Structure formats: C-alpha cells, structure tokens
Prior knowledge:
The complex is a heterodimer. Helix content of chain A is 26%, strand content 18%. By secondary structure, chain A is α/β, with parallel strands linked by helices. Chain A has 2 domains: 2-145, Aconitase, domain 4 (Alpha-Beta Barrel); 146-176, no CATH class. The radius of gyration of chain A is 16 Å and the shape is globular. Chain B has helices spanning 27-38, 65-80, 95-101, 133-142, 167-178, 194-197, 201-209, 225-231, 292-295, 298-308, 326-334, 337-344, 394-403, and strands spanning 15-19, 22-26, 52-55, 86-87, 110-113, 127-130, 144-148, 152-158, 188-192, 218-221, 252-257, 264-266, 274-276, 287-290, 318-321, 346-348, 369-372, 388-391. In chain B, the strands form 5 sheets. Chain B has a 5-stranded parallel beta sheet, with helices on both faces. In chain B, helix 5 (167-178) links the parallel strand 8 and strand 9 (188-192). Chain B is globular and about 60 Å long. Chain A binds chain B through residues 14, 16, 21, 24-25, 27-28, 63-64, 67-73, 91, 93-95, 98-99, 102-103, 147, 149, 158-160, 163-164, 167-168, 172, 175-176, and chain B through 5-7, 15-17, 28-29, 32, 36, 39-42, 70, 114-117, 130-135, 137-138, 141-142, 144, 146, 148, 181-182, 185-186, 212-213, 215, 217, 357-359, 376, 378, 380. The structure holds iron/sulfur cluster.
Amino acid sequence: MIKGKAWVAKTYVMSFEMIIQQYWTSPIDPVENARWVMAGVDEAFNKENGFKDFGYTFIVAGHNFAGGGKSIEHCITGLMGAGIKAVFATSFARLQFRNAINYGMPFITARDMNLGCDTGDELEYDPESGIIRNLTKATQFESVPVAPFVAEVAAEGGLMSFIRKKIADGSIADLH
Amino acid sequence: MAFNSGRDSVVPGQLVWVDVHTVMTMDYLGKQCFKAFESLGTDKQLFDKERVICVSDHLVPPPTEQWATMLNEWRAIVKSYDIPNFYDLGRQGIAHQVMVEQGHVLPGKVSIGTDSHANTYGAVGAVGNAIGVTDAAIAMATGKCWFRVPETVKFYIKGTWQPWVMAKDLSLHIMGMMHWNGHLIYKSLEYCGPAIEALDMAGRMTLCNMTVDLGAKNGIIAPDEKTAAYLQPAAKGQWDFIASDDDARYDAVYEVDVTNVGPTVSRPDKLDDVVPVEQVVGTKFNKAFVGTCTNGRTEDFAIMAAILKDKQIHRDVNMICIPASTQVYLECLQKGYIETLVKAGAAFETSSCGPCAGIHTGVAGDGDIVLSAGNRNMKGRMGSKKAQIYLTSPAVVAASAVRGEITDPRTFDV
Ligand code: SF4
C-alpha cells in the first residue's frame, strides 16, 4: 500500500516540458533530473527542485501523459528522483510509457480519474488489487491490471538489472 | 512481429521479445546508449557492429563550444567500437533519412532508433520504432527489444492526387481527423489503397514519419516495385516482399478520398488545429523553413524549385532550406534545384535537424511567424515561446514565400 499527496494535471503534460530543452543532454540520473523535472509544465515548478519540494507522491492526469514525442528517459528518472511513486492517467504517450516500464516506475491506466481529484488530495494505492482510494474525497477508482512482465521488471528494479542478471546467469538466450 | 519473435502468430496486447535488424542512435543520446550498454556486462560485445548505426544529426555542425565537446566525445566512443556505419559531418544526414536511403531498414524487419520519428522506416515496409536509451543499450547487447503487439488501424486512401497536393497535406488532413496523440495512441497504422501506390518513396516517408505525431506506435506501407527499385542500390541485407495476411484483423478502417484533399495547414501551437489553406490565405509571416525528416527530400526541393523558378522570395521573408541528408544535398545540387532556390533568395544549410527542435541554424525569436514544412509546432518548438509556427507542405511554403503571406499554390501563377 502506498499513501501520499497527489498533483493533478490541468491540461496535457508534455515530455518536452517535463524536461526542458537545456537538460535534454544531461546525464540520466534521478537526483540530477529531479532538480528540474516539470520545470516547463507549470510556473510554480520552474525553479531548482521546484516540483520535488512540493513532496507529491502521485500524479493524476488525463489523456496522453508525457506526450509530444521525446524519447528522453530523464522524464521518468526525474519523477522517480522527485519522489513520485505512481502516475495515474487515462492514457500515456507510448514512448514514455515504455520508458516507465523499463525503469519500473508504475504508469497506471485509470480512466478519467483526473476529473474526480484535486491537487493536494491524499491518495492510497494498492498495487496488488489496482484500487486507488482518494481519502480526501472518500472516492475509489479501479485501474487496468499491470502485465506480469511489467511487474517482473519492476521487481528487479528496472529492465537494465533484469537483463544484466540474465546476461550474468546465461539465460539471456531464452528471452522470447 | 510473429516472424521476428520466432513465433507462428502473435495477438494484440501480447508482450514479446523481437529480433531487431538495426539499432540507430545519434549524437545527442548516443554516448549515453554506449555507456548504458557497457554496464550490461557483455564485455563490450555488440550484437553486430554492422547493425548498430550511428549518425550525427541534431548537433552538427556544433553551434556551441559545449556541443562541440559533446560531439568529440561521441566520435571518440563510436571510433572505439570501430562502427562501420557512422554518418558523421561530411557524410551526415538526419538519422531517419540516412537509415532509409542507405538501406539500413528493410521490408518485414524491425528497426529501432533513439528518436521519435523512427516511424519513418515504415515507408519501405519495415517496422520502425522509437525507443529510449535503455532499449537501445539492451538491443545493442542482445539484438532484441520487447514489444507489446499493437492493434492495427487501416487507412485506405483512394482517389487522385490533385496538382500541388503532397503527402504532407494528407498527413495533416489525417491529423485533423484523428487528433494529435489522439485515438491512434499505441496503434500500428497501415496505409494502403491506390493513392498510396501512386505515391513516390519521398511521400511515403513523409506519411509514415508523422504517424508518431498521431500517437501511433508505427506506420507502415506494404512494399511494391517502387520500394524494390528504391532499395535495390543501397539495401544492406536480404529481404522479401511481405503484405498483411488476407485475413488480418483491424481495430478500425478509415477511408480517405485524396481527390478531396487540398493544400492543408496546421495553425500554431496545436498540431491538430488543421485547416484547408483557403482559411489562412493572406496570413503574413517572416520566416520560412523547409527541411527535417518530414519534408527535406529531393522531391520536396524539386516542387519548390518548380514554383520558385525565375521568381523572387519576398523581401520580408527569410527562407532556410536544409536537405535531409548529404545525399539529398548532392542530388539537389546536381539537378539544379539549389541553384534555382538560391537565385530566388533562399539560404541553404548543410544537412542537420537545424531549427526543427529549436537547436540551431535558424531558430525562431520573439514575434517570429514561421511557415514551416516540418512536423511539430508546439510553443517553443523552434526556439522562442513567443514565436508562432504554421506547418504545411513545401509547395505551400514556396508559393507563399513569394508573396510574403500564406498562398494557395493552386492559385499561384507558376
Ligand atoms: S528533423 Fe526534427 S523531428 Fe526529425 S529527427 Fe530532427 S529534430 Fe527530430
């Protein structure tokens, strides 16, 4: 069970605003990327550790979270470094959805949940059942179940460790 | 996908590891890919160094000292792996153009790249897919990448292309129908029908290129004789014709009659704010840009040269043209398009992404109104957030540049 405060996106959240252009080439590192993550999304986040310092645990969004088509993984590591434990959205842009799976960051599909939540609401997420409770509003949402592969990768701490282990024990050839 | 994952069949939603034919990475993420790859413990063994394609495109020639240093690090790492297919300044091009024109993507095979417009590879019947650094590193080590088998949406395009109407217009038209990152998110798009068969390879590349902006996983066109003729001189590897199974299941089928599609424009800030050119005719602009992985090909400059021959670009318009690759540059030079366009008052730059992502060679400043044949027009995409970007075809850009205001090429006296 994960509990914490949510930030609710008012409009589309774009990957190129989550990490603004000057940081596209910075090293992919949770601590480093968390300093400027979301800087272009909202004026309130546009200072060092601007988003991180709000101490959110969850993000709730509508369609196409992290859209706009950038492949940069800094968006995901930045959120991780800023303490985000899960993102709930109606849909995700496929590139960042993929990156999130690869980093073991839960990107959870929960339709229209943004319509019934406000920034600052206290949420509780049960990864086992996929149920998300809004404790502030006393409401509840269901999410789309996560594929076994995704859970397996997350349990290994991300795809890099998952693969590293398979290379080390020689089972890499069995990937299919 | 079934074939490339060693299976007889796959179903949508299934997660499978697929054999990739090629992995592409480029200057500004490439070093990170190699570093991540090295951390996997394969003792620096690439799965196949002939099939790891490295390109310098976003940062060349380097506009700042910082990027010159980054490029030097990039070159050093590529050199240390003795990568034979390294397209660096002098032989460079936008990665997606290079991948297709140099035969690194083949029908029926899966190729991945660390840039979103890898969807372009579908033009030759390949599955082209954008991935991040992690996926690239893993593919460089294992030759594999995981995929969720997508649902397929078919676009049947019929009718006859009207004069001065280009694949870009159809692409923007579909953007208006389906919305930017809208209903097609995660889907695989298949373009087919007589109007697609009539399209040249450049147009097919434009169309597949922009499927990523529809939110789709990839876009694909079945290979035909045109594909074979195009690939024949350059193809690196064997390939077969593949087509969809006759009993292929589609999530949805859309039909568009291209006879009714005219020159089309996407208005600033939102890609799907699409209108027929008539609705924006007369809009003044001060910058024009033709290049990018969407519309920087020889055929694009050919149509511009036809329009701008013996004409002068308006004094209030600065036009920048950037061929998508060195090969395209050379072709345009040999065919005389560059001479025609330079005489008309266009400025040419060496091949790179240029100002497309707001990096260099002609970025937009405050108050600029840009008429671009590129692919994205969100606020700040080409530089200043106080600039506006209209997107359209090279034909509309050329005709409009003469008048200094958006012009319908069909009403233009060529
Ligand atoms: S030309 Fe533009 S869209 Fe294409 S790869 Fe370069 S920056 Fe990306």
